[in-house]
UniProtKB/TrEMBL annotation:
It comes from the Eukaryota. Pfam families: Adaptin_N, B2-adapt-app_C. Adaptor protein complexes are heterotetramers composed of two large adaptins (beta-type subunit and alpha-type or delta-type or epsilon-type or gamma-type subunit), a medium adaptin (mu-type subunit) and a small adaptin (sigma-type subunit). It comes from Salix purpurea. One of its GO terms (cellular component) is clathrin adaptor complex. This is Beta-adaptin-like protein. Belongs to the adaptor complexes large subunit family.
Length: 842
């Protein structure tokens, strides 16, 4: 084997070719360490730059740590900054080296230059080594009392860093009290803002274990303190203003006069040039007026102009962030923005993500007066070179058609889309025409005339093909070629990979058979045979259901498969109202941009006290409780998070061993129209089945069984008894909660004694456990608490699941019950209410 070719590439001048260069660098730094010659600082800078560049590209230069520290004995602030950067990087990964930096950092904390004092204090706090916290207390105390505001600003953040390194050291040094004093008395607004940030984080962390910390946290939301911050808000930086406004959102005014006072104080913040300040102010206005319907609507009108101004200025990214908030407001109150629809027209140079959001808003604000202009604009976008935007614009036209009464012009536009020679336009238009016919059946004649000219071979997208097949089955009496098109599709059954299309094809062939039996008999036989042999469980089950239905009674089958058409008045929304309300509560956050609540995209560690209350995975009873607590490691797709799991399609072999699919006999169909409607078709031999296999299939659907005995008067059910030793796996709880329907949802009152007892949330689970009702998770923060309970029926496996939301201030509780045995849900509700009524009295 030939030796590898030698490369002629020379090493990068900024990258050492070996250890020798780092060694040379070390010796040069050592020579300069004690030198006081003129120009030595310039030489140090060049060497420091090399060290930092090596460190940045991942080369280990920790061997020069001592020399870097020795060279830091200078008044050159640039050298100080580079040295602090180097020290902070290697101190984190090598705590032993961090010990070498303590002396010179403490010395620099007493430097005459406030900038050096601040930088040294910041670097000292950034060492993040638990064994060195004792060296941090003294400099922090001095920094908090420093005459220079920059040093105090750094010291306040240093206290917060110390809290995260060692909570005990921070609390024992009484730093929270010092920060509180600075918060109320310091003249520098940035110091005040940093104190507010640090105290919020410290007291939130300590509130669960310390009553004093809880009182201090509540004091931040007192009227005097809120007004103190609001009166100084113009002095704060933009970031600090957002911090203050975020605190004001949590304040609960005593009356409407306070609400108007706060809004008057913040009125000019809506004109601020910074988008974050405007959005934070808008959030305050919106949340303060939630209980005042008329004023709330006026707030929408007031904040509309500033937000529209922000959308039209700044970068596309900033416009998108503001536009996302406008989108949320438009969806909540479209009538407020109906006259401003032209602001949502797409510009040619806008990114596609901005255009998509504007299309959704145009759909929402369209009304009778603006529909024609908006639809005309949207039709222009259908020819856009950006295919996703073209698709979205066609969908927008369809959505407007479904929400308007006068759809004449819109239907004509949609039918024109069908005639365009673009596959994606035709596909989207077919889906929309299907929905249009479901809501406006009177337009079937015009639509079917155009749809009949479309070849099924030219439609490849599954949703579009499914829509076309649906129309072929639903309106087969008006389309002369419908049976033959369905027959050709059935012949190519194995080539169709979409289960959705195969399901629609089964139903369409059934519908067509009842309207045109002779022409469809062969297609139905082939479709049922192919469906029964299909590897997809849903397709197989539907084919089997249709087969058994026809075998049972043809007339009944027709009533089930082809009932009289009823117009669909409302289409299902993709997001529940609860999810939308949660997003609105998190206004001015990423939740609005992502269009989902924060608990769906943040980990449990960073969720706030209220954000995790709906997520079972982060609800748990404290370790001090006697009630067994279950920690649930749930992902963000749990149903309790509001995002249902996507079902995975089953592969071949998932339906193989349960039963054998029957062979299909077309003679069943040839005689179907001649059989009396009242007589079931139940000849197993005629269908090519053995009596045993026919009986197995009959048993599967409950057919062919002996007649049930005459009903007798059932005895009254025994009183409900629960299993005191019931146990339930958290994963099973989530699965059952996802699958079971709601049996009961009631609002109950809690006794004053019970509400008072909830100051310790563990008291309720402990009480209910005495009634054989077990807590699997709990969470929330006073006054809003949430619990999940379960119970098991004695001597049976029937399970009851309970969600219990309690507001201690109003002494009200909302319970939701789900049960395996729904007939016992009312009895269990009575038992649960009885147990709850005794809470706090025993």
């Amino acid at each position: 084997m030939a030796p590898p070719a030698q490369t002629n590439r020379s090493p990068s001048p900024s990258q050492p070719s070996g250890k020798s260069e780092v060694t040379d660098l070390k010796s040069q730094l050592r020579q300069l360490a004690g030198s006081r010659l003129p120009g030595v600082d310039d030489s140090k800078r060049e060497l420091f730059k090399k060290v930092i560049s090596y460190m940045t590209i991942g080369i280990d230069v920790s061997s020069v740590f001592g020399e870097m520290v020795m060279c830091s004995a200078t008044s050159d602030i640039v050298l100080k900054k580079m040295c602090y950067l180097y020290v902070g990087n290697y101190a984190k990964v090598n705590p032993d080296l961090a010990l070498l930096t303590i002396n010179f950092l403490q010395r620099d904390c007493k430097d005459e230059d406030p900038m050096i004092r601040g930088l040294a204090l910041r670097s000292l706090g950034s060492l993040n080594v638990a064994n060195l916290v004792e060296y941090l207390v003294g400099p922090l105390n001095a920094g908090l009392k420093d005459n220079n505001s920059y040093v105090r600003i750094v010291a306040v953040i240093g206290v917060l860093k110390l809290y995260h390194i060692s909570v005990t050291t921070c609390i024992d040094a009484d730093f929270p009290a010092v920060l509180k004093h600075l918060l109320l008395n310091d003249q520098d607004t940035q110091v005040v803002a940093n104190c507010l940030l640090a105290l919020q984080e410290i007291w939130n962390g300590e509130a669960s274990t310390s009553g004093d910390a809880m009182k201090e946290r509540e004091a931040l939301l007192s009227k005097p303190f809120i007004y103190y911050l609001l009166n100084r808000i113009k002095e704060f930086s933009e970031w600090a203003q957002c911090l203050v406004l975020d605190l004001v959102v949590k304040y609960v005014p005593a009356d409407s006069n306070e609400i108007f006072d706060i809004m008057n104080l913040l009125e000019d913040r809506l004109q601020h040039a910074n988008g974050a300040v405007v959005l934070a102010t808008a959030k305050v206005f919106l949340h303060l007026t939630l209980s005042m319907t008329d004023v709330h609507q006026q707030v929408y009108e007031r904040i509309k102009a500033p937000l529209l101004t922000l959308v039209s200025s700044g970068s596309p990214e900033q416009s998108y962030a503001v536009l996302s908030h406008l989108h949320l407001l438009v969806m909540r109150a479209p009538y407020v923005f109906s006259a401003d629809y032209k602001h949502f027209y797409c510009q040619y140079n806008e990114p596609s993500y901005v255009k998509k959001l504007k299309l959704e808003m145009l759909t929402a604000v369209a009304n009778e007066s603006s529909t024609y202009e908006i639809v005309t604009e949207l039709c222009e976008y259908a020819a856009n070179v950006d295919i996703p935007i073209a698709r979205e614009s066609i969908r927008a036209v369809g959505k407007i058609a479904l929400q308007q009464y006068d759809v004449n012009a819109i239907v004509d536009r949609l039918l024109q889309f069908l005639e365009m020679e673009k596959d994606y336009v035709t596909a989207e238009a077919l889906v929309l025409v299907k929905d249009l016919l479901r809501k406006y059946p009177q337009w079937s004649h015009d639509c079917i005339a155009v749809v009949g000219n479309i070849s099924s071979q030219n439609v490849q997208e599954p949703k579009a093909k499914a829509a076309l097949i649906w129309m072929l089955g639903e309106y087969s009496q008006d389309m002369s070629d419908a049976p033959y098109i369905l027959e050709s599709l059935t012949e190519n059954w194995d080539e169709e990979h979409s289960a959705e299309v195969r399901l629609h094809l089964l139903t369409a062939v059934m519908k067509c058979f009842f309207k045109r039996p002779p022409e469809t008999q062969k297609a139905l036989g082939a479709a049922l045979a192919a469906g029964l042999a299909d590897f997809h469980q849903d397709v197989h089950d539907r084919a089997l259901f249709y087969y058994r239905l026809l075998q049972h009674n043809v007339t009944v089958a027709e009533r089930v498969v082809n009932p009289p058409k009823q117009a669909v008045s409302v289409f299902a929304d993709t997001q529940s109202s609860e999810i939308k309300d949660r997003i609105f509560d998190e206004f001015n956050s990423l939740s609005v941009v992502y269009q989902k609540p924060s608990y769906m995209f943040t980990d449990k560690e960073h969720r706030g006290p209220f954000e995790f209350s709906d997520e079972l995975g982060s609800l748990a009873i404290g370790t001090e409780s006697d009630v067994p607590a279950h920690v649930v490691e749930a992902n963000d797709k749990d149903l309790l998070l509001g995002t249902p799991d996507k079902e995975e399609s089953r592969g071949a072999g998932t339906n193989g061993s349960a039963y054998t699919a029957p062979l299909y006999d077309t003679s069943l169909l040839s005689t179907a129209t001649q059989v009396q409607p009242e007589l079931p078709i139940s000849n197993p031999a005629a269908a090519g089945l053995s009596p045993q296999s026919s009986l197995a299939i009959d048993d599967l659907l409950g057919l062919g069984l002996p007649a049930a005995p005459a009903p007798t008067l059932a005895p009254s059910p025994p009183p409900l008894k629960l299993n005191a030793g019931a146990a339930l796996d958290p994963g099973t709880f989530q699965q059952k909660w996802r699958q079971l329907p709601i049996c009961l949802s009631e609002e109950l009152s809690v006794s004053p004694q019970g509400a008072a007892a909830l100051t310790t949330p563990q008291a309720l689970p402990r009480h209910l456990q005495g009634h054989s009702i077990h807590c699997i998770a709990s969470g929330g923060q006073a006054p809003n608490l949430k619990f999940f309970f379960f119970a098991q029926k004695a001597e049976e496996s029937s399970i009851f699941l309970i969600e219990c939301k309690i507001n201690t201030s109003s002494a009200k509780t909302q319970i939701t019950i789900k049960a395996d045995d729904q007939s016992m849900s009312q009895a269990f509700s009575t038992l649960f209410q009885s147990a709850l009524s005794r809470f706090g009295t025993s």
